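A reminder from the course coordinator: this example appears on the midterm review sheet, so study it carefully.

Given structure:
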């Protein structure tokens, strides 16, 4: 039997169901025996397809010629490999036996132990761009404003800083927990609280905080943000419940300070630093709001009346002082009369000549004559 194998091919020769040998390019004459007694089967393989797969691979690799022609890669459950073809990443391999034709391409294999977990490579960007990367690798990009906790099988093993991080899959269940390092706000809204004087009101609280210990924040409580919110509610209820409505409205800052001190102690236990606490809103029920408005209106009216009476008293006292000075100083009274006369005659061209005596009496006499004789 004549068999032809092309230059880009290899041929597997099976005789009687067993592998006989590996045939290279060219023409071959195979002895099949009289009447085809030794039945032969030829399987041609394209070596341009670098990776070689076959159901009988474990049998074929026992042959010396096959071993010399193929690059065999054996990987255990904890091993992975990168296969480069002419310096281009061609395959990412998992556990098992893998075979690659040594020609016509240059084949290079890099092995890795996944028990080391972290994958570091000078051409990592090329690796993660490969189609099979997601199957064997798990990665995350950490921003500058955050820390990311690497958790393997539920246990925190490392805090990841800014940059890209890649890890082999298969060495355990890998999870990432991102923690924002920026200042955050917790708006504790709509709590109904009763004051010491039995007034029910709603209070909104604003708490600003930062995470200072990411590992403690994740491992100490199930949800640090929710825990802080709940603690703020309890502390606020206790602080408001010991004050009357007037005390609460009159000094909201002291309430905020008391709440901040109490929350800060509790938050420090799970890696949180409380920066500030303030009462955002105090909402009164409708009937209490109307009563409070009436009280405020009455207080303002009383203040206005008090100020008015003070001004009237001051004005009367000033007038009494002025009258006493005029009575005690005739010259000063004379000057005051002249000032009044100047104001009366302002803007007129009349000329008056007064004699000795009381100027005011002379002016009243002039006015009386003008009234009796309108033609003058």
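Designed residues:
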């Amino acid at each position: 039997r004549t068999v032809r194998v092309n230059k880009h091919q290899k041929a597997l020769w099976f005789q009687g169901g067993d592998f006989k040998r590996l045939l290279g390019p060219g023409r071959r004459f195979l002895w099949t025996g009289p009447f085809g007694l030794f039945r032969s089967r030829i399987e041609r393989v394209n070596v341009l397809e670098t990776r070689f797969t076959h159901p009988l691979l474990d049998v074929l690799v026992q042959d010396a010629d096959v071993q010399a022609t193929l690059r065999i890669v054996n990987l255990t459950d904890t091993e992975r490999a990168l296969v480069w073809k002419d310096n281009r990443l061609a395959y990412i391999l998992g556990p098992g036996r893998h075979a690659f034709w040594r020609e016509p391409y240059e084949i290079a294999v890099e092995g890795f132990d996944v028990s080391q977990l972290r994958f570091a490579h000078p051409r990592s960007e090329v690796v993660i761009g490969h189609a099979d990367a997601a199957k064997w690798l798990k990665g995350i990009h950490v921003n500058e404003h955050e820390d990311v906790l690497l958790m393997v099988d539920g246990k925190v093993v490392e805090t990841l800083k800014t940059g890209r991080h890649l890890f082999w899959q298969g060495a355990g269940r890998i999870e990432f927990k991102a923690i924002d390092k920026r200042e955050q706000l917790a708006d504790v809204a709509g709590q109904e609280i009763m004051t010491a004087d039995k007034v029910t009101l709603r209070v909104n609280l604003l708490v600003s905080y930062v995470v200072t210990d990411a590992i403690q924040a994740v491992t100490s409580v199930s949800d640090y943000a929710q825990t802080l919110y709940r603690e703020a509610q309890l502390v606020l209820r206790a602080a408001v419940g010991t004050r009357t409505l007037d005390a609460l409205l009159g000094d909201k800052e002291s309430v905020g300070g008391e709440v901040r001190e109490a929350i800060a102690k509790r938050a420090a236990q799970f890696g949180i630093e409380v920066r500030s606490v303030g009462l955002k809103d105090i909402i009164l029920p409708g009937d209490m709001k109307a009563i409070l408005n009436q009280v405020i209106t009455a207080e303002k009216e009383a203040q206005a009346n008090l100020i008015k009476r003070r001004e009237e008293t001051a004005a009367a006292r000033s007038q009494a002082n002025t009258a006493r000075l005029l009575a005690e100083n005739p010259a000063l009274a004379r000057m005051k009369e002249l000032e009044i006369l100047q104001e009366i005659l302002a803007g007129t061209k009349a000329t008056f000549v007064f004699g000795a005596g009381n100027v005011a009496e002379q002016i009243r006499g002039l006015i009386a004559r003008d009234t009796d004789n309108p033609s003058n």
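The longest helix spans residues 286-328. The CA atoms of residues 72 and 99 lie 5 Å apart.
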